[in-house]
Structure formats: structure tokens, C-alpha cells
Design brief:
Largest sheet: 7 strands, mixed
Radius of gyration: 14 Å
Distance between the termini: 44 Å
Oligomer: single chain
Number of domains: 1
CATH architecture: Alpha-Beta Complex
Strand content: 35-45%
CATH topology: Nucleoside Triphosphate Pyrophosphohydrolase
CATH class: Alpha Beta
Number of helices: 3
Order of helices and strands: EEEEHEEEHH
Length: 140
């Protein structure tokens, strides 16, 4: 079995006192309308966090300086026969900059509050749930 690993992040912002999450539409699967979080394949000699920062910058144009300590979630799935993939997600607050998507890979993006993001996501609902619970606990 082949093994693949991707790294990315759940990115959020506070707008008008409400938390919104950034989700992206993957262009590789427009028919299925696959919405998820920015992520990409790890490259040689790259740490998970370095991969996540690079992919976020490439895909949505956001420069993430650091991730929130204590949050690391892994989603394991099988994207094709004989292929096992782990997607590692960190958590980051969006910097004060605009999203600029990589049009060759992405079909769009949305900032959505938790309930709406949960309805739109395809496979990453558990990751979003974990992020929301983590942030709620942190606020208390």
C-alpha cells in the first residue's frame, strides 16, 4: 500500500464578534464540490508545520507565522485503491490580509460560521468539530 501525507490548517477569524472558518473548494473534484481546508503534500526535509505554512501561502495567499499550541488533528482516508493518506491539520487565526486563491487548484473560498461551515464541508467535519471545541475551551 502506498502512503501519502498532507499538512494544512483550520484557519479562523473573528468578525463582528463571531468566529468564521475559511473553507476552500478543490478544483480537482468540482463535480463533487469538495469543500475542505487548505493543505498539501509534504516535501522532503520539510516539517509538518513548514508544509502547512507553505501550502496555506500557495493556496490562499495567507502568511501564517505560527499555529495555536496544542491543536494537531489527523484525518486518515483512502483516496484511491492501494493508497492510504494522512492529512495533518493545525489551527491558526487568520492574519489581517485578504485571501487570494491559487486559481489553478481552487475553485473558490468561503468564510463561514461554524454551523454553516459544517454543512458545507465534505470529509473534514470532525476536524472542524475538534477546532471549534478547542477554541471554545480556550475562551473559558
Amino acid at each position: 500500500m502506498n502512503y501519502e501525507k498532507s499538512c494544512g490548517a483550520v484557519i479562523w477569524r473573528s468578525l463582528g464578534g463571531k468566529r468564521e472558518y475559511l473553507i476552500i473548494l478543490n478544483k480537482k473534484s468540482p463535480a463533487s464540490g469538495h469543500w475542505g481546508f487548505p493543505k498539501g503534500h509534504i516535501e522532503a526535509d520539510e516539517s509538518e508545520a513548514d508544509t502547512a505554512r507553505r501550502e496555506i501561502l500557495e493556496e490562499v495567499g495567507l502568511k501564517i507565522e505560527s499555529f495555536i499550541d496544542g491543536f494537531r488533528q489527523v484525518s486518515r482516508y483512502y483516496p484511491a485503491p492501494g493508497v492510504k493518506k494522512d492529512a495533518v491539520y493545525f489551527l491558526a487565526e487568520a492574519p489581517d490580509s485578504e485571501v487570494h486563491i491559487q486559481e489553478s487548484e481552487l475553485g473558490g473560498f468561503l468564510w463561514l460560521e461554524y454551523d454553516m461551515a459544517k454543512k458545507r464541508l465534505n470529509h473534514d467535519v470532525k476536524i472542524l468539530d475538534a477546532a471549534e471545541k478547542f477554541l471554545e475551551k480556550r475562551e473559558k
